[in-house]
Amino acid sequence: MDMFQDQIPLPQSRNATPAPLDAPLSSTARPLADRMRPRALEEFLGQEELVGKDSLLRRMMEADEVRFMIFWGPPGSGKTTLAHVIAGMTKAHVLSLSAVTAGIADIKRVIQQAREAVSRRGVRVILFVDEIHRFNKVQQDALLPHVEAGTVILVGATTENPSFSVISPLLSRCRVFTLVQLDAENLEAILQRALHDTERGLGEMHVNMEDGVLGLIARMSDGDARRALNLLEMVVCSAPLDEEGACRVAQEHVKEILQRKQLVYDASGEEHYNLISAFHKSLRGSDPQAAVYYLVRMLQGGEDPLYILRRMLVFAAEDVGMADPQALQVTVAAFEAFKHVGQPEGEIPLTEAVIYLATAPKSNASYMALNAAREEVRRTGSLPSPMTIRNAPTKLMKDMGYGKGYQYDHDFEDHFAPQEYLPDDVKNRVFYKPGDFGFERDIKKRMEWWDQKRKEKA
After folding, report:
1. How far apart are CA 433 and CA 440, in angstroms?
2. Counting Cβ atoms within 10 Å, is residue 85 exposed (0-12), middle (13-18) or buried (19+)?
3. Closest of 311, 281, 438 to residue 363, by C-alpha
4. Which residues sit opposite 207 in a β-bridge?
5. Sign of the CA dihedral 402, 405, 406, 410?
6. Distances (CA, A) of 185 to 83, 182, 221, 444
7. Which residues have a Cβ under 8 Å from the Cβ of 341 and sit 6 or more positions away?
8. Which residues contact 443 (CB under 8 A, 6 or more apart)?
9. Both 338 and 246 in a single domain?
10. Residue 148: inside a domain, yes or no?
11. 418: domain CATH number?
């Protein structure tokens, strides 16, 4: 099968049923999720803000004024469905590509078809690119001149943040429409429609559904309509038959089929960054409940626990710091324990370290000291250290004054000999400013005592 199709006839009216963007299969061979794909905006559920009455996108579609656009949203939220609906409402010629399988040759071929459609029929051409984030930079660059020239009107769909996955020249020409994850109420309505639809759904199968089953499927589907419909189809087709030949579906049957809920998580995509950010901020905000929750979300989604632990090591030094120096030791211990024990038992010390970090006093004073010192070095360059604290391993260096006048602190009362350690040009700079919380209260008292001793000597 070609990776693109020129197969969507111009509808006779605005309410005409859209032809599918993909090559058609027989109704019996097509999955329930594909058969139940909404054919018009009136059937489209869960994106009210996007396609509701008087919304920008709805006005554009009803006026047949489709412009360059990208639909961005989680799996099963309706991105490709919207493209199908647009195909049925527009008077433009519609072509499609799947970025999963298409290459440069396919892009050239579909652009040639677009040119022929424009010259032969004088119509606008919409090019729908599914999973557009799968196109690499070279492939996106190949599309760019034809988009700029207006040969095609680009409509893309992506589960990845287009800010990171679509090249800037293409993105600047497109309006991004964001779809949200479907809630359980909308998913249950979609399942109800599929269960009772005799034309495209399961209405002729005489399903005897126990109360609460559809709600359970909706909750287990994690906001993904395609997953919900696939699960419904699997449950119904594998359900036992009663004496009257009807399918009997109980909640236990659903739980048996889907032993573990598959969470929406892409260990290399945007959700990876969303969850690690939420985890990090929950630790910083001293919320152990949220921190443990996001930890489990990442672990259940397949994140590498050692990646989480590496982020925790950074957090222990950056956000807890000297307010509780033991936080770093606890995290290192959890890191080593996990490497020795592995999963699932290694998740116990991992969780212990998460709770420790979340409940520890917080200070970023060490991190700020590092940044301040970096900026000073960048500004002033390689200043010479004071001669008194330089090492003098040779006679020549001693004769030049290296180490002359150095006072050995342990020879003095309180093991402290006030003297200057910074270069002259920066000797009054303060990089580390301890806070008033946790162990840094003690550090602050010591530093104030040392400062007082320096003033007395001066």
Report:
1. 9
2. buried
3. 438
4. 247
5. positive
6. 24, 8, 12, 55
7. 349
8. 322, 434
9. no
10. yes
11. 1.10.3710
Task: Read off the pLDDT of residues 170-227 as tens digits, 9 standing for 90 and up.
Answer: 999 999 999 988 989 999 999 999 988 888 888 888 788 888 889 888 888 878 899 8
Sequence letter at residue 383: L
Give 8's pLDDT tier (boundaries 50, 70, 90): very low
Whole-structure pTM value:
0.60
Tell whether the torsion through CA atoms of 428, 432, 437 and 443 is positive or negative: negative
Handedness of CA 231, 232, 237, 242 (dihedral sign): positive
Q: Give the Cα separation of 276 and 274 in Å (integer).
A: 6
Tokens of 282: 């929950």
Q: How many CB atoms lie within 10 A of CB 455?
A: 9
Query: Dihedral sign, CA of 228, 233, 236, 239?
Result: negative
* Alpha carbon distance 210, 254 (integer Å): 11
What is the pLDDT confidence band of residue 269, given thresholds at 50, 70 and 90?
low
Retrieve residue 354's tokens: 């998460």
Say how many residues make up the chain.
458
Q: Domain containing 196: what range?
A: 184-257
Percentage of residues in the chain having pLDDT higher than 90:
32
Query: Which residues are registered as beta bridge partners of 241?
Result: 247
State the chain's mean pLDDT as an integer. 85
Read off the CATH number of the domain in which 253 is found: 1.10.8.60
| pLDDT tier for residue 1 given thresholds of 50, 70 and 90 | very low
- Amino acid of residue 392: A
pLDDT for the residue numbered 19: 46
- Here the CATH number for the domain that contains residue 23 is 3.40.50.300
Q: Where residue 398 falls among pLDDT bands split at 50, 70, 90?
A: confident
